[in-house]
Amino acid sequence: MAVAGALPMVGSASGVLNADPQLGGAAAIAVPGTAFFQLVDAGDPLGASEAVLRTTCGLVLLTAAPAFLLPRRARPADAAETVAQ
Question: Please, which pLDDT band fits residue 1 given cuts at 50, 70 and 90?
């Protein structure tokens, strides 16, 4: 019955899980796009492309690095139940 206490929170978790990728996707388009067009307006389209490409590659590496800190295997079912209580 550990799940019974979490039922009111199910909708909140679902909303967060849907909103996070949308926010990340919007930021991933808006931030480099803004930087690119500011540099293009300054008169350096090739430099703008290079700067945005380098920045995007750096951000991909920065966000992918924590994936190696995740556990390789899931917890056993009985350990997960004791944590939920």
Answer: very low
The 3-state secondary structure of the chain, one letter per residue: CCCHHHHHHHHHHHHHHHHHHHHHHHHHHHHHHHHHHHHHHCCCHHHHHHHHHHHHHHHHHHHHHHHHHCCCCCCCHHHHHHHHC
Measure the CA–CA gap between 54 and 47, rounded to whole angstroms: 10
Which position has the higher pLDDT, 41 or 16? 41
* Among the listed residues 57, 51, 59, 46, the one whose alpha carbon sits nearest the alpha carbon of residue 35: 51
